[in-house]
Every structure is written in C-alpha cells, then in structure tokens.
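Notes from the 1:1 (GR / supervisor)

We went over the backlog. Supervisor wanted to see one worked example end to end before approving the batch request, so GR pasted a single chain during the call. The sequence is below; no edits were made to it. Supervisor asked that the structure be written out right there so they could see what the output format looks like.
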Amino acid sequence: MHVVPLPALADNYIWLLHDDDGNAIVVDPGEAAPVEAALSERKLRLRAILLTHHHNDHIGGVGALLARHPAAVYAPRDERIDYVAQRVGDGDEVSIDGLRARFRVIEIPGHTLSHIAYVGEGVLLCGDTLFSMGCGRLFEGTPQQMLTSLDRLASLPGNTKVCCGHEYTAANGRFALTIEPHNPALAERIEQVQTLRDQQQPSLPVTLATELASNPFLRVDTDEVTEWCRRHGAATDRVTRFATLRAAKDVFRG
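Structure output shown during the call:
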C-alpha cells in the first residue's frame, strides 16, 4: 500500500492510499481538485473515502468526488457529516472492496466529540487529534478525553506511520523546544523537518516512535515535561499537566 500526502487548502493534507492494481482510498478530502489530479496522474480508481471528523476542511470535497466516482464513504456517527454509506465506531473494521486493505476504527474524542482514527496497513490516519510534535485544539472535548485519546494512539506499535491532517510540524517543534530544550530526539526531529520543508517536502508521515521521543503531548510523564509543568504550577497529575501544555500552546506565538 502506497501512502501519499496531498497538500490541500492552506495547510491540510489529504491522504491518498493506493495499491499496485490501481485501487485507491482517500482520507479527509477537504477539497476535490488535489484528489482528482492525483487519481488522474496515477491512473487510479477511487474505491473509498474515509473521514475522521466533521470539520469542513476535512470533508468539503466529498460531494464533488462522489459526483464522479462511485466510492463508499466511511465516517463517524455524527449527523453533521453527509454522504455517508457506513457510519463506524470504536472497534469496527473497515474492509474496502477491491483492495486487500483493512482498518480498525478507534474513537479518539477531544478535538471533536465524534473524532475517530483508522489504523491498518502500517499507518495511523488520525485527522486532527495527533500532530507531529503536537496535538489538536480542544474544540469540543475535555483535557481528560484528549489525553485518553492520545494514550490510545501512543500504545500502537512504534513503527506505525502517523498521517496527520495538517502541516503544523515546524511550528509545533518551536513550541516543543520551549518545553524540552534538552531533548536530543526533539532537536534531531526539528532539524529533519527544517531540511524537508526547505526542500518543499512534507514533514509527514512520521513514525510513532519518533513522536514518542519528541512530542511533549505524548510525554506528560517524563521528567523534563513534569518539571516544566511544576514551574507553571501544574505538576500534580497528568491531566492537569496535559491541560497546561495545551493552554500554553493555544497562546504560543513562536
């Protein structure tokens, strides 16, 4: 299974997955044009559309794609999302006709209450919950919900490729450096991202192992993150530490 990030809108990624027989899946198509261009260039047939949450920059292109392709649509149980052939929830398995691909659904509320991820074929399609060196804003969920969701994702195999919904990596790295300035894995990741972006290459996908070593939102129990939280009056428990990190990121201008 080939995994291709398609830049869209201002800083989104639509994820294209396809096999060697010309069958394709797209994840969170915020607009149709990049998908159509990629399908045409690679001579692919769109078999399915997977959606992680209801925000328009992740679903805005679905209608236009369905007007041209007889694709099945999988989405969370959220009536704010139209065009759905099958609604899925925690523990469900998505098996795509025409492909040998299988994905397990994980419910990961926090960014939105109905947010889900798809895990399979060595990839994690996590929308706006987990970003490289960051995590999503809490528009609908609570810190406890988001931390629980991140804990679930963190438990996946370390070689899993994390496929996030946005190219936020460089900015996230600048924030992470204020939390763990002495973390060598973080410094290495920031340097890698700088090189990739200078070459106009995506910073994603990234392995989960790399995120576990460099993402402060997955490291709320480490000594350096705990010490940062202590200095900010929030070292008492891991939910409070996470909430303090997220609040600091919300106002960070680096």
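Supervisor's comment: The chain has a mean pLDDT of 96.
Batch request approved.
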